[in-house]
Each structure stands twice: as structure tokens, then as C-alpha cells.
Specification:
The protein is 14% helix and 64% strand. An eight-stranded antiparallel β-barrel has the order 1-3-4-5-6-7-8-9. With 197 residues, the protein is mostly beta strands.
Length: 197
């Protein structure tokens, strides 16, 4: 009796795993995971009420993004993700949580798409992160190397809003430190490369 129970348990487990595998395989063609690296070439930054360009600052930045998407229609894909971004000159760290939308307008170029990422960067308790609105608008191309694996290339406009930045300086007259809070916005051109599953 114990052997029959163990055999039934093993058979049920095999059937469940087979069924889960079939559902996963069927869903994989519509469900995608993207892991991308972006270099953000800063174009301008606004701070203290003034706008500075590339002639004033050598602005750069790096970004890692992990996202998941689902094909809701032949041409449309929606999803969301999280990132770790590091902007330089001025130095800001952000952790954006975003929603993404992709549209494939060309049937002859199935790998080409337009996309937008919209979200908000959170400021977790660990590390030195700034919060604020984040957005990307651009175009991309996916080169499929296998059925569920490909290389992804993107070029986009990147907008970043940095909130509640504390600045300080030493007052020349009193020799005392003075601190104040400000916001900053940055416009960049983003170049991305990654993998998609």
C-alpha cells in the first residue's frame, strides 16, 4: 500500500511538472525578460535655476535595467522593471521602478520597435539614492539568436528628475556651513545593449 502511495505521488509530481513545463514553453513566446546596460550621455542639467550644457560639464552615466514584458498583441508589449542608475557630473544614484511599453510598427522588420519607459526612482534606506520622475523614449532592435534568446540594442532620450538634493557651502563672511535643498533635472542621450529571453 505504501509503494502504491509513493508511486502515485511520483506520477502526480511528474504530471504536474510536465504540465507546468508545457505551460511555461507555450507562455515563453509571449513572456520576455530583458537585462540591459545603458550609457547615458548627458546633454544638459538644470540646477540652482540655471541650465548647464556639455561645454560646462562632461556628463556621463551608467544604468543597469532588469525588466519583464508580456506580448498583449502582435505589435504591442507591456511590462515593468527596476534599475540601478549612476549619473556623473553631478554624481547621483537612482533606483527607478518603471512601466514599459513597446510597439512594433514594421512587419518586414520584426525586430524593430519604438518604446517608452515611465516611472519613479525610489530612495531606499541603504545607500545614497535620490528619488524623482524618470522617463525614456526611443527606438530599439532585437536580433534573435535562438527561439527564446536575443540581443537587444536601443537608442533613447532619457529624462531624469532628482528630488530633495542637499547642497552645502562655507559662507565666506561667517565661515559657517550653509545647507539648502534643491531639485535638479537632466536630459541625456541613452545607448543601450542587452539580452532578452
Amino acid at each position: 500500500m505504501k509503494r502504491i502511495g509513493n508511486s502515485l505521488l511520483k506520477m502526480s509530481l511528474c504530471i504536474a511538472l510536465s504540465g507546468a513545463s508545457m505551460v511555461t514553453t507555450m507562455a515563453q513566446s509571449k513572456f520576455h525578460v530583458d537585462l540591459d546596460y545603458h550609457y547615458n550621455l548627458g546633454l544638459s542639467i538644470k540646477k540652482f535655476g540655471y541650465t548647464y550644457g556639455r561645454s560646462d560639464y562632461d556628463m556621463g552615466g551608467h544604468s543597469l535595467r532588469l525588466g519583464a514584458r508580456y506580448d498583449v498583441a502582435e505589435k504591442w508589449s507591456v511590462g515593468g522593471g527596476i534599475g540601478l542608475d549612476r549619473y556623473t557630473n553631478d554624481d547621483y544614484n537612482t533606483m527607478p521602478i518603471y512601466a514599459t511599453l513597446r510597439y512594433k510598427p514594421l512587419k518586414k522588420l520584426a525586430g524593430a520597435y519604438a518604446f517608452t519607459d515611465l516611472g519613479y526612482a525610489i530612495a531606499p534606506s541603504f545607500g545614497d539614492f535620490y528619488k524623482g520622475f524618470t522617463g525614456k523614449l526611443g527606438v530599439g532592435y532585437t536580433v534573435n539568436l535562438a527561439k527564446n534568446f536575443g540581443l537587444n540594442f536601443q537608442v533613447a532620450y532619457d529624462y531624469k528628475d532628482f528630488r530633495d538634493i542637499y547642497y552645502g557651502y562655507i559662507n565666506a563672511d561667517t565661515q559657517m556651513p550653509t545647507f539648502y535643498k534643491s531639485n535638479s533635472t537632466r536630459h541625456s542621450l541613452s545607448f543601450g545593449v542587452g539580452v532578452t529571453f
